[in-house]
Amino acid sequence: MEKIYQFLVLASVFFYWLLIASVTIRVVLKRRALGVSIAWLMIIYIVPIAGIILYLLVGELNLGKKRVERFRAMYEPYRCWMTSLDEYKTDHPQHQNLFSKPIHNLCFMRAGIPALVGDQLSLQSETATILKSIASNIENASKSVNMVFYIWQPGGRADNVAEAACNAAKRGVTVRIMLDSAGSKAFFKSHWPDQMRKAGVELIEALAVSPLRMFLRRLDIRQHRKIVIIDNKIGYTGSMNMVDPRFFKQDSGVGQWVDIMVQAKGPSVPLLNSIFAWDWEVETGLRYLPDLSEYSFIKQHTHGNYAAQIAPSGPDMPDGIIQQILMLSIHQAKKSITITTPYLVPSESLLDALQTTAQRGVPVNIIIPAKNDSIMVDWASKSFFTDLLRTGVNIYRFHGGFLHTKSVMIDESFCLIGTVNLDMRSLWLNFELTICIDAPDFCKDLISLQQTYIAHSTIVVLQEWQNRSVLNRPIEQFFYMFSPLL
Fold first, then answer.
1. pTM listed for this prediction
2. Where are the beta strands (DSSP E) in 217-358?
3. Does the N terminus or the C terminus of the chain have fewer Cβ atoms within 10 A?
């Protein structure tokens, strides 16, 4: 009996170390950022069994067999659709500044997405105005309404948009709404899904969260895009979820969320609609690519000759394309950079780019919320302060609410606005969207808004930061080690 017990113990130890070795080899052989691999190895060795289970659940980019098969079947039709934009002469900008042209070339070479000219773009920063504008556009829709959001929270003016969508569907307008399963959990538990579907709205739950699916695909990949398209003529995208800040996360202690959206009218709208169509087909298998032949307005360049570049990212897109856009933009800066982001957990290469740019004499300003809704991200962000401050980067902590705006202004003449946070999850994992805008008048509006953010912020002073409690430093360092996974 004793020998059997010894054999079982030895066999258990053998299989335990075999499992550790197998997962270690798997982590090492995956081609990804070195920091991500090291973070996973640390988790696996510190908490072996839990770490291995966690890695098998969320450690690899696995969207499931069905979605992968759809991706492969979709590439060629969508590539042909993008190529057809050439007929409208909108992908040959008459004016591109020195910053935008390399970015446009990058997006076209990697993703086949051209830069488009002729949009009428407006920056909207008042939540009430944004929700009222979207609801009004939907009420006036005659053909179609397409929306995708990470979060749809019932309450306040967001309900006005829901009512407008139901009314539009009842009068025969095709209304399609895609919401992330995890982000919109409260919405799917409310009365709105039944009410919408009864009205004729096509509502789907993207990337459903279920214990039964955890070993079939990675559950923490999220649909993080925010897009609204009305009649293929009016489009919205930006940082704002479908929420009324007065009714959203009021108990989190960070204040009301502060966001922006870009309203577009022109050739970029069908392109935004094609991104929605892509996401819809990934989830449902149904194809609804916009018909460009119906929209002669695309040929009318009545709103100037400045360029806009749509850049989607995600598991089904070229790896790291938005990080490449960010890096290229930062390295090209000669006068100034101003960034707003709710989550500051940069990759090593992005951190180095920001520091190098500041060290060559370019003012680099980063505006973040003073209070964060994520404890882990808050501590991890603070771990980067000292390195950034020492190289001359200015860090502002915004006190006017939870600053959720994601924007980058380069030399006051070129900007990026979208859904992307400065963290590894946004840059490498989730379905995201950025619009790169080469339009001086539009940039003036964003500069003014960023200055308003700074006016309601306090700057972090290096000497004062170094005098913070010594108890904070090991906590910051602990969460810093997990920053590649946040």
1. 0.87
2. 227-230, 234-238, 257-258, 261-265, 307-313, 337-340
3. N
